[in-house]
Every structure is written in structure tokens, then in C-alpha cells.
């Protein structure tokens, strides 16, 4: 008999699971709370009956991912985790510390199917979606490791979250629960390459999260090369979905723009981007490229990035340059997992 993993269930799903066992609804809340305290042994859940613990061990378990390796930056407090899943796959997560709290960057898939030209996550191809439990466990494992409360979550690791939509929404609802991490939706960001149906669907949830859109180019010909999903959902269609999201949620959107030398960092690109986004409730995050060994792209010069930023500001666009963290430990999404897979092949 195949046992069921309870981690990743919502409280309501856990209630439904326990109902055939004749358990009251409050029992699900008790077990749910224990799971997200990091307790996996039903015998150690001291407020549930021993008879129930025996039954649960027969039909279910509490899954757990393990820290395979940990890399700590010598430049800041960034820590990169290579995590081992129960089926032997590996994913990565990042812990970053700021004045306002501790942020965990979560992966949503093993590998990535999007094929972005400058990204390490996609090089090894797509393996599978993560379950909500595996996404939640990234937060739990890191919180246990650092013994500090996780205050913010960004779903910006490997994978395209909106292609794993149902598990993503379960994950967001679980980490928001007062029985788990009680992380405010306003302290959560979800990044997408531009899956238009997913953006519209997410808008209907009306969750006050921050949506980050990986734009990276101000016109279709260039974005087709850098972000291939643009061939399916071109820029104007993407922006229409973003405007719909803003109307539904009343939330500002962040547009991510990776600065790549000689590719998308010209004055002309800056002006086109400013004109494209004029009038949209948004913020632009300029991201100095994290070079990937298997890619030929190089980071834009500091002066070029500052000029690009100034042009956007002059057009009235809200813009910042992302502070680089963890560069000495390959902290950009996909880089550490890629290094690990290369080692395994040797």
C-alpha cells in the first residue's frame, strides 16, 4: 500500500484525509501545526491519541527534503543550499538576510522548460514539477538550519511557477497560514517569464503578492531570442495581462531586466523600455547578469547600467539596480545545481 505524504496538504485537505478515520476537524489543525514545527514522527505529536499515531504510520508519512550541501558567501550573509529530494533529484534554494528580515528564494520545478538564453536553470532541461510540500520544505529546512524566522519568500529559483500553478497556490496558502510560518502575502514575490494565462488566473486569486515579470527586452525581436516564450505570448499581449493583474489586485508589478553587455543595454533599449512601460503601475529592477560558464553573455559595465537607470528615471519610471548577493557561491538560479550535475557526470 502506497502511503500518502501529508506535507503539502492544506488544513482543509488534511481534514478531508482524516474524516474517514472518524477524527474531528480540530485534529487536522493539531497535526498541521506539528508538521510545520518540523516534527515528522507521529509518536512525537503529543496531543494526538496513540491509537491515531499508529493508524497514521500505516497510511501516511511526513516527507522531508535534506540539505545535501551548503555554500556560505564570504562577501555577505547569503547561503546557497543544494537540497536532496526523496526521489534523488536535487534543487537549490537561497537564504538572504536584509535589514528588514530573512528572505528565502524558492524553486518551483526541478530544472526549467523555458529555455531563456542566459539562464543556468534551463541548461539541463526540465525534470518535473515540485509538490507544494517540497516547496514549503525549502522554507522549513532553511528556517531550521539558521534558527531564525523566515519573513519573506521569493519564488524566483529554478522553474516557471505559473506552469506549476495548483501547487504554487497551495504553497502560498500554506506559508501564509498562522499555523505555519504566518508569512504575509505582501512579503511574497512570484516571478514569471510571462505565462499570460497564468498571470490572468493569478489575478483572479486576488492575493496581495508581488508579481515579478522577467521582461529582459523592450521589443519582440530581441525578447524572442532571450526569452523564447515570447514567441507564444509577445510583449503587448504580456503587458495587457499585466494591466489586467494590476486592475484586479491593485498591486504594482515589478519588471525584471537582466543587463547583458551589447545585447539589451543600449540607450535605445532604455528609451524603448521607458516608452513601453509609461503609464503602467510598475517598478523596474535592473539585474546585473550573473555569468554562466556555458553561456557566452557578459555583464553590462557598471557605467552602462547607471546610464540605463538614469534614462528610465528621466522618463518617470520607478527603477532600482538589484544589489548583487552571493556571487562568489554561484547564487543565481540554476548555477549550483548545474555545477553539481557536471560533477556527477565526471
From TrEMBL:
One GO molecular-function entry: metal ion binding
Radical SAM core domain mapped to chain residues: 98-328
Name of this protein: Probable dual-specificity RNA methyltransferase RlmN
Catalyses which reaction(s): adenosine(37) in tRNA + 2 reduced [2Fe-2S]-[ferredoxin] + 2 S-adenosyl-L-methionine = 2-methyladenosine(37) in tRNA + 5'-deoxyadenosine + L-methionine + 2 oxidized [2Fe-2S]-[ferredoxin] + S-adenosyl-L-homocysteine; adenosine(2503) in 23S rRNA + 2 reduced [2Fe-2S]-[ferredoxin] + 2 S-adenosyl-L-methionine = 2-methyladenosine(2503) in 23S rRNA + 5'-deoxyadenosine + L-methionine + 2 oxidized [2Fe-2S]-[ferredoxin] + S-adenosyl-L-homocysteine
Cofactor remark from the record: Binds 1 [4Fe-4S] cluster. The cluster is coordinated with 3 cysteines and an exchangeable S-adenosyl-L-methionine.
PANTHER family, alphabetized: 23S RRNA METHYLTRANSFERASE (PTHR30544), RADICAL SAM CORE DOMAIN-CONTAINING PROTEIN (PTHR30544:SF5)
Record carries keyword S-adenosyl-L-methionine: yes
Binding site for [4Fe-4S] cluster: 112, 116, 119
Localization, UniProt: Cytoplasm
Keywords: 4Fe-4S, Cytoplasm, Disulfide bond, Iron, Iron-sulfur, Metal-binding, Methyltransferase, rRNA processing, S-adenosyl-L-methionine, Transferase, tRNA processing
EC number per UniProt: 2.1.1.192
Enzyme category, top tier: transferase
A family per Pfam: RlmN_N
Matching InterPro entries: Aldolase_TIM (IPR013785), Methyltransferase_A (IPR040072), RlmN_N (IPR048641), RNA_MTrfase_RlmN (IPR027492), rRNA_lsu_MTrfase_RlmN/Cfr (IPR004383), rSAM (IPR007197), rSAM_sf (IPR058240)
Cofactor(s) needed for function: [4Fe-4S] cluster
Origin species: Caldanaerovirga acetigignens
Gene Ontology cellular-component annotations: cytoplasm
Amino acid at each position: 500500500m502506497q502511503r500518502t505524504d501529508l506535507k503539502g496538504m492544506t488544513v482543509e485537505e488534511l481534514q478531508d484525509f482524516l474524516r474517514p478515520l472518524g477524527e474531528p476537524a480540530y485534529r487536522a489543525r493539531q497535526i498541521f501545526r506539528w508538521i510545520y514545527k518540523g516534527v515528522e514522527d507521529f509518536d512525537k505529536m503529543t496531543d494526538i491519541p496513540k491509537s491515531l499515531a499508529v493508524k497514521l504510520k500505516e497510511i501516511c508519512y511526513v516527507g522531508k527534503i535534506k540539505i545535501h550541501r551548503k555554500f556560505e558567501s564570504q562577501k555577505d550573509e547569503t547561503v546557497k543550499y543544494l537540497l536532496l529530494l526523496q526521489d534523488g533529484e536535487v534543487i537549490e534554494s537561497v537564504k538572504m538576510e536584509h535589514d528588514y528580515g530573512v528572505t528565502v528564494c524558492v524553486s518551483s520545478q526541478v530544472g526549467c522548460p523555458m529555455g531563456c538564453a542566459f539562464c543556468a536553470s534551463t541548461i539541463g532541461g526540465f525534470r518535473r514539477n515540485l509538490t507544494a510540500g517540497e516547496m514549503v520544505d525549502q522554507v522549513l529546512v532553511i528556517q531550521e538550519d539558521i534558527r531564525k524566522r523566515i519573513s519573506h519568500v521569493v519564488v524566483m529559483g529554478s522553474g516557471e511557477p505559473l506552469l506549476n500553478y495548483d501547487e504554487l497556490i497551495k504553497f502560498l496558502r500554506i506559508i501564509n497560514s498562522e499555523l505555519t510560518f504566518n508569512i504575509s502575502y505582501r512579503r511574497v514575490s512570484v516571478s514569471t517569464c510571462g505565462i499570460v494565462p497564468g498571470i490572468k488566473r493569478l489575478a483572479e486569486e486576488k492575493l496581495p503578492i508581488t508579481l515579478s515579470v522577467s521582461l529582459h527586452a523592450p521589443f519582440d525581436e530581441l525578447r524572442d531570442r532571450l526569452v523564447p516564450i515570447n514567441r507564444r505570448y509577445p510583449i503587448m499581449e504580456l503587458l495587457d495581462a499585466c494591466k489586467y493583474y494590476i486592475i484586479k489586485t491593485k498591486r504594482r508589478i515589478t519588471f525584471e531586466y537582466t543587463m547583458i553587455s551589447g545585447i539589451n543595454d543600449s540607450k535605445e533599449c532604455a528609451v524603448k523600455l521607458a516608452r513601453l512601460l509609461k503609464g503602467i503601475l510598475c517598478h523596474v529592477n535592473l539585474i546585473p547578469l550573473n555569468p554562466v560558464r556555458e553561456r557566452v553573455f557578459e555583464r553590462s559595465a557598471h557605467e552602462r547600467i547607471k546610464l540605463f537607470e538614469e534614462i528610465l528615471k528621466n522618463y518617470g519610471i520607478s527603477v532600482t539596480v538589484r544589489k548583487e548577493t552571493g556571487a562568489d557561491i554561484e547564487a543565481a538560479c540554476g548555477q549550483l545545481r548545474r555545477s553539481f550535475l557536471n560533477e556527477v557526470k565526471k
